[in-house]
Design brief:
alpha+beta; 5-stranded mixed beta sheet; 4-stranded antiparallel beta sheet
């Protein structure tokens, strides 16, 4: 969710709360003020009735708004204002009135004078003021929303521009990162921090990239010399079996070390984003290519390879990484297939599955894609092949799932 959307939602929530509180306060306050004004008016009318009574010595009652009635001389009564209900014969219902009552004495006779005014029903007051408040607050909210959107578009314009620059920035680019000035202290301070951070990261990236390349190159030279020396020693006459066995171990481990260094360099290159040429690739064609390339090994192991494609399986990625991923998956399936068993490859639009025979499930399936992890401790394996597969899959956001069913290891790649 965007920051502006979150802010607007917060405004709406708090605006709704303010509306409810304001509605209650305004209605209560208005009802109180109306009653106070009405009480003043009722007292004034009662005073007018008293003056008229004293002047004319005659009772002028108009029911129900002005009523004068005799009361007992001993009757004690204080002036009071209150709400009351009076039956309206026209409407045939009880109507709310505000009432003021007081006592006056004339010629040893006490009279109770009552004045009344009809009140608006609370439902009518609530409906009227709620409608008015809703309209006013809605107009204020809409105006405020348009104002903040306009203001935010101006404030965030420079920030959004810098975000786009950051998205397109690459450490491999010869152009240094430059962020536009926004004239907002907080954003400009963030830009300064990002530029300093990118400069440090660029130096670390280039140093790491250079170290990986140099290390791999420097390792290959002595390894090549060791292999060459071993080959020369193999050609010497009169070597006993122990010497030949030792030379063989040296040669094989040197070759393995060479493979490890190349694989680690490859992983470093993937991390550095050096494979970024995107093209559409048919996985069916790639699998068929490697089946043909490893045909002799497949025949020697008496392995059957079947490829089924329910729908064309096309992926967009770097061709070199696609070849490397499929090659490592396929070699892993061949190396762990028993003689005379089948390797099944199933392709669909959004996934592909490669299956090979197995006697039992992998003990730690969550570890098999870790570097140097080997389930069967096969001395001929570097333990990096599946790590490269996982690195490539993560690079393109492919999801890998493992399932052991019917004595088969099933690796499914969700594209």
């Amino acid at each position: 969710m965007k920051l502006l959307s979150k802010i607007n939602r917060a405004y709406f929530k708090y605006g709704l709360l303010v509306f409810l509180i304001a509605d209650f306060v305004i209605i209560s306050l208005t009802n109180y003020i109306l009653k106070q004004e009405m009480d003043e008016e009722l007292r004034f009318e009662a005073t007018e009735l008293v003056e008229s009574f004293k002047r004319d010595n005659n009772i002028h009652s108009i029911y129900p708004t002005g009523v004068v009635e005799k009361v007992n001389a001993n009757h004690k009564f204080e002036s009071v204002s209150k709400d009351t209900l009076i039956y309206d014969s026209n409407q045939k219902e009880l109507s709310p009135f505000r009432e003021y009552s007081t006592i006056v004495a004339s010629n040893s006779q006490k009279y109770k004078i009552t004045t009344r005014h009809m009140l608006m029903e609370f439902n009518d007051i609530f409906t009227l003021f709620t409608s008015l408040i809703t309209v006013v607050l809605f107009l204020i909210f809409i105006g405020f929303l348009f104002f903040t959107q306009r203001l935010n578009s101006l404030i965030w314009q420079g920030f959004n521009k810098n975000v786009e620059q950051l998205k397109s920035y690459s450490f491999d680019s010869p152009i240094k990162l430059h962020l536009s000035e926004t004239k907002i202290d907080e954003f400009d301070q963030l830009n300064e921090v990002l530029i300093n951070l990118s400069n440090r990261l660029e130096l670390d990236y280039k140093a790491s990239k250079e170290f990986s390349a140099n290390a791999a190159h420097e390792l290959q030279t002595p390894l090549t010399i060791i292999r060459s020396k071993c080959e020369n020693l193999f050609s010497k006459p009169n070597l006993d079996d122990e010497t030949i066995s030792s030379l063989r171990d040296i040669y094989l481990n040197t070759d393995r070390l060479s493979g490890i260094s190349k694989a680690l360099l490859l992983l470093a290159k993937i991390d550095h984003g050096q494979f970024n040429v995107i093209e559409s690739i048919s996985l069916s064609e790639v699998f068929n290519l490697y089946v043909e390339s490893y045909q002799e090994i497949i025949q020697d192991g008496d392995i059957v390879v079947s490829i089924s494609e329910t729908q064309p399986c096309q992926i967009n990625m770097d061709k070199r990484l696609a070849d490397l991923m499929i090659q490592n998956i396929f070699i892993n399936a061949i190396n762990h297939s028993a003689k005379g068993k089948e390797i099944q490859i199933k392709l669909s639009t959004d996934s592909f599955t490669i299956s090979n025979h197995g006697e039992q499930a992998i003990l730690q399936p969550d570890q098999i894609f870790n570097r140097f992890y080997k389930e069967d401790q096969n001395q001929g394996s570097t333990g990096i092949g599946l790590a490269i597969v996982k690195k490539i899959a993560d690079h393109y956001n492919f999801r890998i799932t493992y399932l052991f069913k019917d004595f088969k290891h099933n690796f499914t790649f969700h594209l």
